[in-house]
Structures are given as structure tokens and as C-alpha cells.
Design brief:
Layout (H helix, E strand, L loop, with lengths): L1 H26 L9 H11 L3 H14 L4 H47 L2 H12 L1 H10 L4 H9 L5 H32 L8 H13 L2 H9 L8
InterPro entries: TMEM64 (IPR015414), VTT_dom (IPR032816)
Organism: Desulfococcus multivorans DSM 2059
Protein name: TVP38/TMEM64 family membrane protein
Length: 230
Amino acid sequence: MQKNQKTALVKVSLLILFIGVSIYLVRFSPARQYFTTEQLGLILEAAGFWAPLLFVFIYAAGVCLFIPGTLLTALGAAIFGPYWGFVYVWIAAMIGASLAFLIGRYLGRDFAASLVGDRLKRFDDAIERNGFATVLYLRLVYFPFTPMNFGMGLTKVRFRDYVAGTGLGIMVGTFIFTFFIGTIKDVWAGGRWAELLSWKVFLSIALFILSFFIPKLLKKARGPGTTQII
């Protein structure tokens, strides 16, 4: 038992170290100059045919390194357009979210389990039973993406429920954001200013504004008497 506790402590220490180094690398180190939309955009433009694959790799790694997801999503929409941008962003976000979950699960779950008391155990068991619904709801209400990826790895939620809930939960928000950014970028780059009054632009703006109300609509739909899933 003592050996298991030591192993769990070593693992969680590595997790904390990993997160700390990632934040330092992206936010405070000299390397942060390469994690801008301008620099990443130049790298992807130079990649040519391999740009989509490189973007997926950069995005997935960026999720694990705490690079803001909105920055990477906007980059994908600006370079690949509203439709292919959505496809590449969604795939990359799923890979990154899965990797972060597995890192959290492998390095932090044992330590988290050792701290779970009776009250937290009921919460942990509830997440295991309602994993898909819990993850789906939290994704739809825009719970911070990267912290949730690692945090869910510390719980008993099944990996398949986490993947399914994440895949469905981020789909709407990802499409709205990429469609909005990609559409505006296409009009801007083409210099076709008359298209600013097109249905496509108005639709993208309407969807973008609507996305801010999704969390409130979901909470209202649940109502005070609705069974809590988390």
C-alpha cells in the first residue's frame, strides 16, 4: 500500500510539473513568440500539401500545452475556410482532448482516488454512471476546455463516454466559431465588400451571437426541478 501511495505521488508530481512547464513555455519563455497566430500561420502556409496534417498536430499538441483553443480554432478557420476549417479543428480538438485526458488519467487518477472521501466518492460514482451526459453538458456550457480535459482524467468517467460527450458537445460551438471566422476572412481576403450584406455573413453573425446564449438556454431548459447530472 505504501508503495502504491509513493507511485501515485510521483505520478501526480510529474503531472503538476508537466502542466507548470507547459504554461511557462507558452506564456513566459522566449519560445512563446512562436505560439502566435502570425508565426503559426506562416509555418502552415509553408507546409503546402501537408498543412492540414501539420495543423492537426499543432492543435492537438497545443491543447496539451495550454495554448488557448480560440487562437488555434481561429487560425484553422482563417487558413482553411469555414467548412474544412471546422473539420480539421474538430478532429484536432478531439485528438488533443483525448491525449490530455489520458495524461491526466495515467498521472493523476491514482492520487485523486486516494483523496476521495465518502462525499466525493458519491460524486465520483455519479460521474461514472452519467459520464456521457456530464461531459456533454459541461462542453455545451463552455466549461474551460483544457482544464476540463485534464480534470476529467482524474475522475472515474469512462474514456468512451468522455470521447462521445466531447465529440458531440464541442461540435456546435466549433462549427459556429469556424463558420463565423472563416466567412468573415473569405470576404476580407477577397475584397468583395458587397458580400458583407450577404445571407452567409448575416447567418454567421447570428450564429456567433447565439452561441453566447447556449449556456443560459441549457440551464433554463434544465430548470430548478430537473435532476442534476453533475
